[in-house]
Amino acid sequence: MAHCERAAKPLLQCLQKSYTKGLPGLQVQATRAFQTTAIAREEAQTETKSQPFHKSPDPALVSSPRLERRLLRQGISPIGSRRRRAALETSPNIPFEQLPYQCFQEARNILQADREEKLKDIVTIREKIARLEAVPTEQAGGLQVKNSKLVAMNLHLDHLKVLADVNDPLVKKKFEDGQGDMSKPIYRYLADKKWREYRRKILVQRITQMKVIPDVLPHCDPVVDTKLYFGRTATQPGEFVNSRVSATTPKLDVQLFERGEKLVTIAVVDSDIPNVEKDGFDYRTHYLAVNVPISATSTKVDLSKLSSESQVVLPWMAPTAQKGSPYHRLSVFIMEQKDAKPLNVADIKAKETDRSKTLRTLQARYHLKAIGAHLFRTQWDETMEEVMRENGYSDVDMELRRKRVEPLPYKRRNPSTFR
C-alpha cells in the first residue's frame, strides 16, 4: 500500500462511518459536493465509463506518483497534496466546509465569529475614509496631510481584510490549489509570505555571494518576485545559460504584492567585461527599458515586445564571454520610478547611448529605486564563437591567457646568483 493511501485510510474510515450513519445537513447535499472537487469527481466518473482512469487521470484525484509524472509531462500540475487527493478519490462527495468532525466545526464557528468582528471594523474604517475624502483640503490640514492620512487608512483597511480571511480554511485551500485572486489583499499576503520563506532567501544569497551587490548597485532590497524565462523554462538565480539560448530576448514574470500599479525601469548589466589595458573589468548594459507597468494582476513582461518608441532605450544584446575569461554575471534589476511618473524616452536615448556606463549613474540620474533582481551566468561554450560572429564581435579569435608572473629570486630554483 502506498504511503498516501495509508495516510488517507483513517480519514476514509471516519468519512464512511459518518456517511453511513447519516449526518444532519449532509443528506440533502450528499450528491453535490464542493465545487472544485465534486465537479471533478463527477467528470472523472463519466470518463471512466469510456476509458480507464490511468489513461486519463484527473489532477484533482490522482495519487499515484507515476500518473503524477504523466500529468507533469503534459504540462498539468496535480491539485493540492497527494494525501488529500487520495482521500477524495476514495471518499463520498462531502463538502469541505461540512466535514463530519465536531472539533473542526467548532473551530470554524470560532473563526466565523472572529471574521464578523473584523468585517464590522472594515465597515467602520471605510466610513472614516469616506468622511475624510469629503472634508475640504484646507480643513484637513493641506493636501499632503490629507493624502498621508488616506494612505495610512487604506493600508489599515487592507490589513483588516487580511485578518478577516487569513484563518479561513477555504481561502488557504484555494491558494494552495493555485486559484487565488491576486487582486485581493489576502492572496497577495499569502503569496508574499510563501515567497519570503524560501525563494527570496535564495535570491538574496546569490546576489550577495556572487558580489552583484555591491559591484553593480550598492544596495537592493527585493520586494517583488522576479522570474526569468528563456523560452518556457524558468532560469534559477545564478544558473549558467547556454550562449545560443541567451541570444534570444528573455521574458520576465514580475509579481507585485502591493495594490496599484507601478512604472519600473528594467536593466540587464554584464559586470565582467575584461579590460586588458587596465587589467580589470568593465560594465556593459545588454538591455534597458523604461516606463514598464507592473501590478499584482499583470505580471508578464516580454522584453522583445516592449515599444521601441516609448519604452526600449537599448535593445537586447546577446551576452558573450571571451575564450579564456572567467564566467560573466548578467544582473537583471527592476527599479521603481519615482512617484510612478513616466520618463522622457527621447531624452534618455540621447543621453544613454554608451552601453559601458554603470547602473549607479543611471540610478542616481533618474532617481530610481531597486525593488527586484535576478541573476544568470554565461561562459565560453561550444556555441559561443558562432554567437559572437553573428553579433559582429571583433575579438572572436582572441584568447585571454593569464599573465605569467616571474617568481622572486629567493623562490627560484638554482638561480645563477646563488652559484
Automatic annotation (TrEMBL):
The keyword Mitochondrion applies. Residues 42-62 are annotated as: Disordered. InterPro entries: PEBP, PEBP-like_sf, PEBP_euk. GO terms for cellular component: mitochondrion. Keywords: Mitochondrion. It comes from the Eukaryota. It is found in: Mitochondrion. Pfam families: PBP. Its main location: mitochondrion. Belongs to the phosphatidylethanolamine-binding protein family. Mitochondrion-specific ribosomal protein mL38 subfamily. Component of the mitochondrial ribosome (mitoribosome), a dedicated translation machinery responsible for the synthesis of mitochondrial genome-encoded proteins, including at least some of the essential transmembrane subunits of the mitochondrial respiratory chain. The mitoribosomes are attached to the mitochondrial inner membrane and translation products are cotranslationally integrated into the membrane. This is Large ribosomal subunit protein mL38. It comes from Aspergillus avenaceus.
